């Protein structure tokens, strides 16, 4: 086709389309590319006066400190374990809800329940934190109200690190299930209905239909979503964790501190920019490798779904 | 699939149906329960809440906490104004830029589409992280300015990809017919493509609006207390946490802090701050559900 067309000519021919992309490209240059050189701060002993590139270079000291104090391991462990639970159990639960929705024939019931299940997706994490506090706090929480009324000893949930993985997991599920189940429900609706009808004519029960037709055809969607989620396993839902735990409640750190909350807290409350950015850089690099890896696997399974 | 109800049901199918109704109902109740709790609390009497705790029904029904919210209305109304202005303008401007970019990036005859797509997508693969971004945005002079919040929420690679997938489903012949009529690319986009992107605009617009309305993170980083009127959710964050921090820090010492008359006020503020976006949802649900399905299949 075209052989060595004049660059200027190609640009000129596409100038409108290029101009249409320009605002977005400028946006990403300013807010995403320009800060990139700033990752250098992770290798310095940062102070405000000298700025990022004037502060004394300290090599890998920041990382060494994070490793030797066990902080990096704890943050990685928490972030990964929470994500694994969210991804695996969360997805399975979403599929179950989608399967159940599919069994329901009453249109009105289906619509209303979908709307209701979607509701939590729309509220801010600030409010989720407040709701959890209303249920769990020592003095007026609904849970402790119930416990007192039945004559039990109220619980000091905000100083019990052991129960927080369950609370956080549940809140995440509460917020995300509506969204996720809609995706799976759509995938179920996309199954060739002649397959299902044929099964019905053959006398297959609903259970058999689910086992032999629906679940196998959801496998693709499930694996793809799973792999992409695994690519993001180093990234946490900052707002949810921060607002649920109050962010600065050190009694809970052992089980609730994830990379994002550590980065935010270290920067905003301790003004420790170097340590904070060291953790941030660790997360970015590790996350990058994971995304590339999961995309590589997706590409092997089904190139159509690969990101690039 | 609707035919199935006419075929005679075997017992196990019946059992499954019952389980399905029960299960979905149960989860729906769990989803709605906290909302009931919050609304009840907002209509409760503070002293009774302090004594007996929160319940499912209002305790000592009163609207006094709402009166409190609006007693000095300047703060809350100012926050409302800031959030509404940001949400409306952010959604409109963001939507326009995203639609324009999404359309251009899927045009088969646009030789730079892959390079530019990757350029945008790369930002999700590797990011500078919070600290470098914070220092850079501060250096731009945006700290303490609403613009820091407004601009950073304007678009995301994910929304552009979503829009691109939508635009891909519009046949190329539409663009071609515009070309034959002698229209330029921008004219084609405005008069032919944009009207066909309505479901996409509703979906992406809702995501944008949701992002602006529920924003508190950027505000906490860049605005702090340097603005007169905090965005709504950040204002709520302040109201909720000034008491929370106190309580969770003393809870360990088993001290009761019951004389803070804030419980019901917090909940009334929460209702006021959340109401509009929740009411918006049922009107756009149809588009939204079709939208995330497209987005989930690829992207």
Q: What keyword list fits this structure?
A:
heterodimer, A: 308 residues, mainly alpha, MetI-like fold, 15 helices, 0% strand, B: 299 residues, 14 helices, disordered N terminus
Describe this structure in words.
The complex is a heterodimer of chains A (308) and B (299). Chain A is mostly helical. Helices cover 70% and strands 0% of the residues of chain A. The model of chain A has no long low-confidence stretch (mean pLDDT 87). Chain B is mostly helical and 299 residues long. Chain B contains 14 helices and no strands. Chains A and B meet through helix 2, helix 5, helix 6, helix 7 and helix 8 of A and helix 1, helix 2, helix 4, helix 5 and helix 6 of B.
**CATH architecture assignment of the domain at 76-187 and 220-305 in chain A:** Orthogonal Bundle
Could you say how many structural domains of chain B there are in total?
Answer: 1
User: Mind telling me the CATH superfamily name of chain B?
Assistant: MetI-like
Would you identify the regions of chain B where 5 or more consecutive residues have pLDDT less than 50?
Answer: 1-5, 249-261
Dominant shape of chain A: globular
The CATH architecture of chain B comes to Orthogonal Bundle
Number of strands of chain A: 0
- Indicate the percent of residues in helices of chain A: 55-70%
Indicate the proportion of strand residues of chain B. Answer: under 5%
Number of strands of chain B: 0
SSE pattern of chain A, N- to C-terminal: HHHHHHHHHHHHHHH
The portion of residues forming beta strands of chain A comes to: under 5%
Q: Which assembly state applies to the chains in this document?
A: heterodimer
Mean pLDDT metric of chain B: 84
State the separation between the terminal residues of chain B, measured CA to CA.
29 Å
Low-confidence stretches of chain A: none
Classified by CATH, the class of chain B is Mainly Alpha
Question: Can you tell me the overall shape of chain B?
Answer: globular
């Amino acid at each position: 086709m075209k052989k060595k067309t004049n660059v200027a000519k190609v640009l000129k021919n596409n100038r409108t389309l290029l101009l249409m992309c320009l605002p977005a490209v400028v946006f990403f240059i300013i807010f995403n590319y320009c800060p990139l050189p700033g990752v250098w701060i992770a290798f310095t002993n940062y102070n405000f006066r000298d700025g990022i590139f004037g502060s004394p270079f300290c090599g890998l000291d920041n990382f060494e400190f994070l490793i030797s104090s066990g902080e990096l391991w704890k943050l990685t462990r928490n972030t990964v374990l929470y994500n694994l639970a969210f991804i695996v159990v969360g997805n399975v639960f979403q599929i179950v809800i989608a399967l159940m929705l599919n069994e329901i024939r009453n249109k009105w019931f289906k619509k209303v329940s979908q709307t209701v299940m979607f509701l939590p997706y729309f509220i801010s994490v600030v409010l989720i934190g407040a709701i959890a506090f209303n249920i769990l706090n020592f003095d007026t929480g609904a849970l402790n109200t119930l416990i007192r009324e039945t004559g039990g000893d109220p619980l000091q949930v905000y100083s019990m690190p052991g129960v927080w993985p369950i609370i956080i997991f549940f809140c995440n599920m509460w917020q995300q299930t509506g969204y996720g189940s809609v995706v799976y429900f759509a995938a179920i609706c996309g199954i060739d209905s002649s397959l299902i009808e044929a099964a019905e004519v053959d006398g297959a029960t609903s259970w058999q239909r689910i086992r032999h037709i629906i679940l196998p055809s959801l496998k693709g969607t499930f694996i793809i979503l799973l792999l992409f989620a695994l690519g993001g396993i180093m990234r946490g839902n900052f707002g949810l964790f921060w607002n649920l735990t109050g962010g600065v409640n050190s009694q809970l750190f052992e089980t609730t501190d994830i990379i994002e909350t550590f980065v935010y807290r270290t920067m905003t409350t301790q003004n420790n920019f170097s340590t904070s950015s060291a953790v941030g850089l660790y997360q970015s690099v590790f996350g990058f490798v994971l995304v590339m890896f999961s995309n590589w696997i997706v590409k092997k399974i089904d190139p159509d779904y690969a990101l690039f | 699939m609707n035919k199935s109800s006419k075929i005679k049901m075997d017992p196990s199918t019946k059992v499954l149906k019952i389980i399905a109704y029960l299960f979905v109902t149960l989860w729906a109740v769990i989803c709605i329960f906290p909302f009931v709790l919050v609304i009840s609390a907002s209509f409760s009497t503070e002293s009774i809440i302090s004594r007996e705790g929160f319940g499912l029904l209002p305790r000592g029904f009163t609207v006094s906490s709402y009166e409190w919210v609006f007693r000095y209305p300047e703060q809350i109304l100012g926050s409302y104004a800031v959030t509404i202005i940001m949400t409306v303008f952010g959604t409109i401007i963001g939507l326009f830029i995203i639609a324009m970019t999404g359309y251009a990036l899927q045009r088969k005859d646009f030789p730079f589409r892959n390079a530019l797509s990757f350029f945008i997508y790369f930002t999700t693969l590797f990011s500078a992280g919070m600290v470098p971004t914070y220092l850079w945005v501060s250096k731009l002079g945006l700290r303490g300015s609403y613009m820091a919040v407004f601009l950073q929420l304007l678009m995301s690679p994910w929304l552009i990809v979503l829009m691109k997938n939508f635009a891909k489903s519009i046949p190329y012949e539409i663009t071609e017919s515009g070309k034959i009529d002698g229209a330029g690319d921008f004219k084609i986009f405005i008069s032919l493509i944009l009207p066909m992107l309505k479901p996409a605009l509703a979906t992406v617009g809702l995501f944008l609006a949701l992002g602006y309305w529920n924003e508190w993170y950027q505000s906490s980083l860049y605005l702090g207390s340097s603005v007169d009127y905090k965005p709504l959710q950040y204002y709520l964050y302040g109201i909720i946490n000034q008491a929370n921090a106190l309580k969770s820090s003393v809870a360990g010492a088993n001290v009761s802090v019951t004389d803070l008359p804030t419980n019901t006020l917090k909940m009334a503020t929460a209702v006021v701050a959340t109401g509009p976006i929740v009411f918006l949802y049922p009107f756009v649900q149809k588009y939204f559900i079709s939208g995330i399905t497209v987005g989930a299949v690829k992207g």
